[in-house]
């Protein structure tokens, strides 16, 4: 007897991955590159990058660009960041954190007033020397790679801004702190410099990034959740730009000018802002320069 049952319906295609951003809660022990590689498999696209690395020891907010969203990353990397950290006084290490080898142990005899003064001195605009095992490039090679190759690396100081360096709790020699800072600030170096100022040494034992610009842990997804949600976890390009940058709406004629790479009248703003057409679609990132506004990123049609 022949089988007369109807054919099985075709398997629906997997939903397309939209352009935009994914805010990941990075797990401990993973490099930022590991997270990018995993997300490329989960979202089925190679075009993914990150807006600033997190050390393997660190957890928390890692902003990824997907598709045309990768064009936002260089601008998002410049935004302020917030961290929750634990600093252990009394020991210095080769890496300024718990993953390095101990260098020296000293007694900790630090009163509350000394601690407050030491933290206050590291608040505001400061000149900070990054850790020698940081990702800073020296003649095109990462500093940590030079250290691993046996080189003695001493990096130049750079100006950073620590807008908040607050003690949340003191547990013996451990300090639970929150740090709000500009891009390029190394929390390991902050721990090292606080310990040096207090005369006992110090290093970082835990680090969690809670905010990158407007994106916080409340918006972040773990890798397991990302595996379940897939493309639905991507913040679409227009929503991502509206969340991360000031907004400028233009009329149809100006939208055509933007599409053809023409300039717009300046608004008197500092920094990049999103330009949106009359239909609400994001067109570009612009930046004021004197009397004109010029494109820094133009989003081609999808």
Automatic annotation (TrEMBL):
Enzyme Commission designation: 5.4.99.25
InterPro entries, alphabetized: PsdUridine_synth_cat_dom_sf, PsdUridine_synth_N, PUA-like_sf, PUA_sf, tRNA_psdUridine_synth_fam2_C, tRNA_psdUridine_synth_TruB, TruB_C
Keywords: Isomerase, tRNA processing
Protein name: tRNA pseudouridine synthase B
SUPFAM superfamilies to which the protein is assigned, alphabetical: Pseudouridine synthase, PUA domain-like
Gene: truB
Parts forming coiled coils: none
HAMAP family according to UniProt: TruB_bact
């Amino acid at each position: 007897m022949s089988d007369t049952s109807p054919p099985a319906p075709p398997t629906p295609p997997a939903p397309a991955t939209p352009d935009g951003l994914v805010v990941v809660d990075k797990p401990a022990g993973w490099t930022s590159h590991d997270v990018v590689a995993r997300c490329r498999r989960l979202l089925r696209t190679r075009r993914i990058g990150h807006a600033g690395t997190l050390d393997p020891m660190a957890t928390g907010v890692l902003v990824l660009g997907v598709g045309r969203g990768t064009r936002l990353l260089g601008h998002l990397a410049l935004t302020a960041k917030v961290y929750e950290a634990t600093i252990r006084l009394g020991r210095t290490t080769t890496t300024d954190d718990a993953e390095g080898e101990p260098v020296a142990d000293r007694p900790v005899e630090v009163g509350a007033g000394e601690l407050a003064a030491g933290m206050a001195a590291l608040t505001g605009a400061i000149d900070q020397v990054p850790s020698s095992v940081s990702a800073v490039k020296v003649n095109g090679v990462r500093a940590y790679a030079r250290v691993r190759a046996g080189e003695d690396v001493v990096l130049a100081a750079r100006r950073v801004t620590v807008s908040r360096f607050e003690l949340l709790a003191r547990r013996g020699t451990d300090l639970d702190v929150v740090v709000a800072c500009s891009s390029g600030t190394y929390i390991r170096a902050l721990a090292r410099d606080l310990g040096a100022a207090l005369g006992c040494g110090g290093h970082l034992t835990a680090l969690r990034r809670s905010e990158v610009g407007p994106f916080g842990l409340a918006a972040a997804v773990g890798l397991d959740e990302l595996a379940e949600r897939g493309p639905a976890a991507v913040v679409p390009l227009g929503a991502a730009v509206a969340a991360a940058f000031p907004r400028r709406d233009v009329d149809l004629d100006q939208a055509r000018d933007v599409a053809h790479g023409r300039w717009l009248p300046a608004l008197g703003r500092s920094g990049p802002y999103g330009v949106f057409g009359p239909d609400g679609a994001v067109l570009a990132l612009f930046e004021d320069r004197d009397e004109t506004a010029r494109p820094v990123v133009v989003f081609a049609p999808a």
